[in-house]
């Protein structure tokens, strides 16, 4: 079976680490590069984390540094969710590989040309790198087969009442992407929240030792402790893993085509992905929006991931 060429644009990030590990284990994705961006933590952490994950997971792909701030608004960092180093305090071995000389947007363009229209992008962080690519290389648009993004919500947000974190961080970048004409799958909070894994499910998933246990268990234990400190239900949502899974296993989500836009100026709604569910605007759909997710299917894929790293 032919593998899907994909660039993972990421901000690792605890759930990014799970997602990248899943991508490698799938056997269905031909990972062409990692392009880190500032998001969950600053680029000073996400870039070294991407480089370390490249080595730790034996990806052997180019890692091109991306944007260290949003396109227009001020940078916001969320240390509480992912820890100061972005990986929940897990320290990976020092990588032997080095960064590409080219920036993320140049790496993306290079790979898009090389893949002759077959390249897909997994955008599991803020969309800054992707927007810069589209603005610098407008001729890239027909060369990108699809962008699958973890971000947005057609219902309730998590950074504001209506905005999801990845979009709220850089709404102007999302606006550029939504207007690009490239096929887009939006895996937002409405779908990812349906894949909440309980502490018992996570303990069962990670019970057996595998090559990446120190990373995955370390992230899970950090998340468990954080939830306890906050008095919240113990468990985890692996948002980014669902987006990765949707690329090679589309049945893990159910999508419907809608016209969507991003609010870039609202004093109360900045970063909201406005999805025209009632079709009031009568505009051509530009985004395949994830309406629901299959938690059991995602869990089965994660079990396959663990088994992969046991071999």
Question: What does the model show?
Answer:
The chain has twelve helices and eleven strands. It is α/β, with parallel strands linked by helices. The protein is globular, with a radius of gyration of 18 Å. It has a single domain (4-310), classed as Ribonucleoside hydrolase-like (Inosine-uridine Nucleoside N-ribohydrolase, Chain A), CATH 3.90.245.10. The two termini are 21 Å apart. It is 39% helix and 17% strand. Helix 5 crosses helix 7. It has helices at residues 14-26, 43-56, 79-82, 104-115, 128-136, 165-169, 171-178, 189-192, 199-205, 213-230, 239-248, 295-310, and strands at 4-10, 29-36, 119-123, 144-150, 184-187, 197-198, 235-236, 253-258, 260-262, 273-275, 287-293.
* Mean of pLDDT: 96
Shape: globular
Through-space gap between termini = 21 Å
How many domain regions? Answer: 1
Query: What characterizes the major β-sheet?
Result: 7 strands, mixed
Strand percentage: 15-25%
SS field, number of helical segments: 12
At CATH level 3, the topology is: Inosine-uridine Nucleoside N-ribohydrolase, Chain A
- Number of strand segments: 11
The string of secondary-structure elements, in order, is EHEHHHEHEHHEHEHHEHEEEEH
Order of the strands making up the biggest sheet: 2-1-3-4-5-11-8
Name given to the CATH architecture: Alpha-Beta Complex
Structural class: alpha/beta
Computed CA radius of gyration, to the nearest angstrom = 18 Å
Helicity, as a percent range:
25-40%
């Amino acid at each position: 079976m032919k593998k899907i060429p994909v660039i993972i644009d990421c901000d690792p990030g605890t759930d990014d680490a799970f997602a990248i590990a899943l991508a490698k284990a799938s056997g269905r994705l031909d990972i062409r590069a990692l392009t880190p961006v500032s998001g969950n933590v600053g680029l000073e952490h996400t870039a070294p984390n991407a480089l370390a994950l490249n080595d730790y997971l034996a990806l052997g792909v180019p890692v091109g540094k991306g944007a260290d701030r949003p396109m227009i608004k001020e940078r916001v960092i969320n240390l509480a969710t992912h820890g100061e180093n972005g990986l929940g305090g897990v320290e990976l071995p020092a990588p032997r590989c080095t960064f590409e000389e080219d920036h993320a947007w140049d790496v993306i363009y290079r790979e898009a040309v090389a893949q002759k229209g077959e390249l897909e992008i997994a955008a599991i962080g803020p969309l800054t790198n992707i927007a810069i690519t589209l603005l610098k290389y407008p001729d890239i648009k027909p060369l990108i087969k699809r962008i699958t993004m973890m971000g947005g919500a057609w219902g309730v947000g998590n950074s504001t009442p209506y905005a999801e974190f990845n979009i709220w961080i850089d709404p102007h970048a999302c606006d550029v992407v939504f207007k690009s004409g490239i096929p887009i799958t939006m895996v937002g909070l409405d779908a990812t929240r349906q894949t909440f894994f309980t502490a018992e499910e996570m303990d069962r998933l990670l019970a057996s030792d595998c090559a990446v246990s120190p990373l995955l268990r370390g992230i899970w234990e950090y998340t468990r402790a954080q939830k306890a400190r906050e008095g919240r239900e113990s468990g985890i949502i692996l948002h980014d893993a669902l987006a990765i899974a949707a690329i090679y296993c589309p049945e893990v989500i159910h999508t419907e085509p809608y016209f969507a836009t991003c609010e870039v100026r609202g004093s109360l709604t900045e970063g909201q992905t406005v999805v025209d569910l009632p079709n009031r605007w009568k505009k051509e759909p530009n985004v395949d929006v994830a309406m629901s997710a299959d938690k059991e299917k995602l869990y089965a894929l994660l079990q396959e991931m663990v088994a992969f790293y046991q071999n």
